[in-house]
Amino acid sequence: MTGLPAPQTQPASGNAPAFTGSARRLLGALGSFPALIVVGGHPQSSRLSHYFLAAPLLRGETVLFLDAANCFNPYRLVAFAEQCRRSPAELLTRVRVSRAFTCFQLAELIERTPAAARRYRARHVVLTGMPDIFDDEELAPAEIKSVFTRALEAMRGWPRQGLTALAFSDEPARRSPLRAWLHRALAAPATAVYRLEESPAGLTLCEATSTKACHSEPRKPALAGTRGEESQTEILRSAQDDKREVSSGWF
After folding, report:
1. CATH code of the domain covering residue 63
2. 10 Å Cβ neighbour count for 6?
3. CB neighbours of 163 closer than 8 A, spacing ≥ 6?
4. Domain tally for the chain?
5. Of 65, 150, 181, 190, which shows the fewest CB atoms inside 10 Å?
6. What is the per-residue pLDDT across 60-105, written as a single tens digit (0 to 9) for each?
């Protein structure tokens, strides 16, 4: 829940598989229509959430970023801004980041999201580590389910309030019974559930509840494309040191 400190080091260089098929179309999901979209199935789903910020940021809109996976990296936005020939500060100041380190903190952030959206005139929300952070072995399952149910009830109302939210979950090596329950509960009110999968062509985005192929069109309304999505590998390259801070904290 604390504000994001200024980055101290450069991210390690490296490439990620390019998005392909319906994954490229969903990159523009934020802002297309009010919805609650769940994305998972990949061990680094939360880290890949940065790509889905492109569409609203390039339109000059604000995004609320609830980071329960401790994965937000401003250098990725710096690299993306440079690729699109935009000022890094122009994009960074439009992302409002709040971190949660416990499931209780994330539940509180979720309940405060509508008020934060009104305050910053934001229509877009990204959650990472959801529902991963609730899979806590130190807490009783009954307590976890109670807190999660409270948070989920708040999230159900987001689309009715005009918010578009993407919740990203990192796939564990093995799902515990509690994690399986959390995923089922999160999927129930979702507008759409997708899983990220790697293929020889790159990352594909498959509808988790559909029998269609990964490259098929989503059943939801058409999703707008974005500038700069044609070279996703380049977005992950190391950026030059930039001392500007992302706007952080809602309170």
Report:
1. 3.40.50.300
2. 11
3. 34, 113, 114, 117, 123, 124, 125
4. 1
5. 150
6. 999 999 999 999 999 988 988 888 889 999 999 999 999 999 999 9
Q: Which pTM was predicted? A: 0.76
The pLDDT of residue 3 is 37
Q: Which of 131, 215, 126, 213 is nearest to 171 (CA)?
A: 131
- Classify residue 1: in a domain, yes or no: no
Amino acid 209: pLDDT: 59
Nearest to 232 by CA among 195, 202, 206, 207: 202
Asked if the structure places residue 49 within a domain, the reply is yes
Q: What is the dihedral of CA 71, 72, 77, 78, to 10 degrees?
A: -90
205-208: long-range contacts, CB 8 A cutoff, minimum separation 24: 205/19, 205/21, 205/22, 205/23, 205/26, 205/39, 206/22, 206/41, 208/38, 208/40, 208/41
Q: What residue numbers bound the domain in which 160 lies?
A: 24-173+185-192+205-235
Residue 175 has pLDDT above 60, yes or no: yes
pLDDT the model gives residue 27: 58
Asked if the structure places residue 179 within a domain, the reply is: no
Beta bridge partners of 199: 202
Number of CB atoms found within 10 A of residue 212's CB: 12
Q: Does residue 53 sit within a domain?
A: yes
> Exposure of 174 by Cβ count < 10 A (0-12 exposed, 13-18 middle, 19+ buried)?
exposed
Tokens for 13, please give them. 């260089």
